[in-house]
Amino acid sequence: MNRRAAMRRLLLTGAGSVFSRALAGSPRDDTQGFVIRSDVRLVLLDVSVKDRAGGFVAGLTRDDFRVDENGISQPITVFANGDVPVTVGLLVDNSRSMMPKRNEVLVAATTFIQESNPRDEVFVLNFNDTVKRGLPDGVLFSGNVKQLRAAIERGFPEGRTALNDAVVDGLEQLEKGRRDKKTLVLISDGGDNASRNTRRRMLTDVERSIATIYTVGLFDTEDPDRDPGILKKLARISGGEAFFPVDAAGLIEVCRGIAQDIRTRYTVGYVPEANNGGPVRHIHVRVSAPGRPALVARTRRSYIYDEAVNGKGG
After folding, report:
1. Contacts by 192-195 with C-beta closer than 8 Å and gap 24+?
2. What are the pLDDT digits (tens) for 170-201?
3. Higher-confidence residue: 109 or 156?
4. CB 280: neighbour CB atoms within 10 A?
5. pLDDT tens digit string along 36-86?
């Protein structure tokens, strides 16, 4: 096993945000001091919190969160609430059915980039019959708005839709990023009629990834290629959110909102117990803060506890 493969095995232990990672010294409410350690196993959850009106909630503390795994309360050992830079992949549907929405997609994707953390590392994958990298050869990620807009514009709406392939390739490229948090933003009608990867393979990769996926569905009610169900499922599995704007203005606001959501998410971590059930671990995160009623937390609902990585296997 080469060094990169070994590190990937060390860091990715299943379908949730599971890392071999700890804070140097005692837990802190920021992102400084993270070090890789092979003797501590953590589940790191990327958590979005909204109030009753759907607004983003910032300024919460560790004591405002409660995490249950398989019904058992877990001590929170890692907590971060800053605007942490992330590795982000923009997956843009360029199939023929997206032609009428082309200009709106360009504007909305550019808005997302402009509203994101300037330290994010971003890549673009345009997909129709095949998946094509938007950035120049040799450039895996960029934070340059002009370069990223050019990456989006390199696509042209034609052909069929390889959505499964786009998600699989996007997850693979996320692993090459340096940021701990990983996010995909998928803009599509949800249909697939050209992928070499099956839907099951794609969904399995999503379950085994640490990435949060936001999906933006663009289609007419009579569009035969539309599949809102898969867009909702991708978001639900990964702890993201699915959006279905009805017009261009709504699309731009959605992309602006996704950028804000990414920048206000919390990192909540705990050490899982080896004997707390089988390999599939179900997670429930609750948030309660004085003077802030009806807060709703959104994150992954499950992950796979890998016994081989977590001390029982070779």
Report:
1. 192/161, 192/162, 192/163, 192/164, 192/227, 192/230, 193/160, 193/161, 193/225, 194/128, 194/129, 194/130, 194/159, 194/160, 194/161, 194/162, 194/165, 195/162, 195/163, 195/164, 195/165
2. 999 999 999 988 999 999 988 899 999 999 99
3. 109
4. 14
5. 333 447 888 999 999 989 888 989 999 999 999 999 999 999 999 889 899
Q: What is the C-alpha to C-alpha distance for residues 212 and 230, in angstroms, rounded to an integer?
A: 15
Give 79: exposed, middle or buried? Use CB within 10 Å, 0-12, 13-18, 19+. Answer: buried
Cα(37)–Cα(296) distance, rounded to whole angstroms?
A: 32
Give the N- to C-terminal CA distance of the chain in Å, as an integer: 13
**What's the whole-number average pLDDT of the chain?**
84
User: Distances from the Cα of 267 to the Cαs of 119, 276, 303, in angstroms?
Assistant: 18, 22, 16
Residue 4 has pLDDT above 50, yes or no: no
